[in-house]
Design brief:
Layout (H helix, E strand, L loop, with lengths): L13 E5 L4 H11 L3 E6 L11 E2 L2 E2 L8 H6 L4 E4 L5 H12 L3 E4 L5 H4 L4 H7 L4 E6 L14 H8 L19 H24 L3 E6 H8 L1 H9 L26 E3 L5 E4 L4 H11 L14 H6 L1 H12 L4 H11 L4 E3 L3 H4 L3 H6 L2 E6 L3 E6 L4 E2 L17 H7 L4 H9 L5
Parallel strand pairs: 1-2, 1-6, 2-5, 6-7, 7-8
Antiparallel strand pairs: 3-4, 8-14, 9-10, 10-11, 12-13
Helix pairs in contact: 1-7, 6-7, 6-8, 7-8
Length: 416
């Protein structure tokens, strides 16, 4: 209830929130803001967001061991801590899901299924459940299993090229916007699925990815670019951005490879990744170097480390580095792409994030597609943009006008 005693729009809706970081939590927070009863499930050692006491070199800590990151992402929720490696813990979640309207998770592909918390299992317990899943690159395709965080999503989706005028250097949008738009889009998809359930009486799975939502965030630019891709683009220069050379965490930065492609690293838990990353890129000697051995020291000496990594990454092509990092550890990275790359990205193609449709005048065209995937109520582009007044008579007839009325309105200049 609000302060004036009025119920929220989603009062009476129960949501089970098994999410971490920001993407998933934002979606469930939005539902809680609208009055839903949101129950957040955490591991016994807590959501990793509870440990974000600094971001971008800025102190984000609060009193009593709290931090701004977690507080911002988890209002309007009740919390429960469970050990989901134990069957008793999973049983608790099963009971919650059996009585819930919505279940939200954003773990890497296969995690939920291994624990008995995948869509098929929970649907057996509750056929009308809305099962909402957030992922890095979509449920299909060769990279569907890979992790992604905000900057990796911005890089691969082309969003880093959308931060300024044509020809400007790419730069990640600040405010962790890739995670935020992912959560907003997932929340929107959940609402659509709840409406579908009220109309059709069915539950379903809803899928949103960093890639789909970040493409849709710049949907106008993507669609216009696809429609006019035969026209010359402005030249783009990536290397001159001064902020890149001053990244507080050089393991969350982007580097040019030998083939002129750029790689975005998104390893924000830098101390966790530093030893294995240094070994993977051939910098073993720097692992215990006092200049670089922990986050504060790397932050203090960031310009020097960025120069070192610039030289390292320029020694191999993007594909070579992608293979090395994939085989060496659980690193989060992505190519920095523009529209020309995006149109042919295997993840984009596999998940249909860019769709080809028949236009009555232009022929076969490509557009940025709807960013949400629904298992039972599929979306679609059923019409292209109408000609001016194209459906005027059709709509008026549906409203009860007859042809004599339409002729009268036309003669009076009310319609075309």
């Amino acid at each position: 209830m609000s302060d004036d005693g009025k119920p929220g729009a989603l009062a009476g809706i129960k949501v089970v929130d098994w999410t971490i970081w920001q993407f998933g939590p934002v979606a469930s927070t939005m539902l809680g803001d609208l009055g839903a009863d949101v129950i957040k499930i955490e591991a016994l050692d807590g959501d990793p967001g509870r440990a974000v006491f600094a971001a971008g070199g800025v102190d984000r800590s609060l009193d009593a061991g709290r931090n701004a990151y977690f507080e911002a992402n988890h209002r309007n929720k009740r919390g429960i801590a469970l050990d989901l490696k134990r069957p008793e813990g999973v049983e608790v979640v099963h009971k919650l899901a059996s009585k819930a309207d919505v279940f939200v998770q954003n773990f890497r592909q296969g995690v939920a299924e291994r624990l008995g918390l995948g869509y098929e299992r929970l649907r057996e317990l509750n056929p009308k459940l809305i099962y909402a899943s957030g992922s890095g690159y979509g449920p299909k395709g060769p990279d569907s299993h890979l992790p992604a965080l905000d900057s990796a999503a911005q890089a691969r989706s082309g969003l880093m090229y959308a931060t300024g005028p044509d020809g400007a250097d790419p730069y990640p949008v600040q405010g962790v916007i890739g995670d935020q738009i992912g959560g907003i889009t997932l929340g929107w998809g959940i609402l659509a699925a709840l409406v579908a359930r009220s109309i059709h009486g069915i539950g379903q799975r809803v899928d949103v990815s960093h890639l789909s939502s970040s493409i849709w965030l710049q949907g106008l630019a993507v669609s216009m670019g696809l429609l006019t891709r035969h026209k010359p683009d402005s030249p783009i220069n990536l290397s001159s951005n001064p902020a890149r050379h001053d990244a507080y965490n050089p393991l969350a930065n982007y580097y040019r490879c030998k083939d002129e492609r750029w790689m975005m690293l998104a390893n924000f838990e830098a101390d966790r990744y530093w030893p294995s990353f240094a070994r993977a890129v051939g910098l073993e000697a720097l692992i215990d170097d006092p200049r670089f051995r922990d986050t504060p020291s790397r932050g203090e000496n960031r310009a020097e480390l960025v120069r070192i990594l610039d030289a390292v990454f320029e020694s191999k092509t993007y594909e070579q580095w992608a293979r090395i990092l994939s085989e060496a550890g659980d690193f989060i990275f992505a190519p920095v792409q523009d529209l020309a790359h995006l149109e042919h990205d295997p993840q984009v193609l596999a998940n249909g994030y860019i769709v080809e449709v028949e236009h009555p005048v232009l022929g076969r065209i490509k557009l940025a597609d709807h960013p949400v995937r629904y298992s039972e109520t599929p979306h679609g582009i059923r019409r292209t943009a109408p000609d001016l007044g194209e459906h005027t008579e059709e709509i008026l007839l549906e409203l009860g006008y007859d042809w004599s009325d339409i002729e009268r309105l036309h003669d009076a200049g009310v319609i075309l």
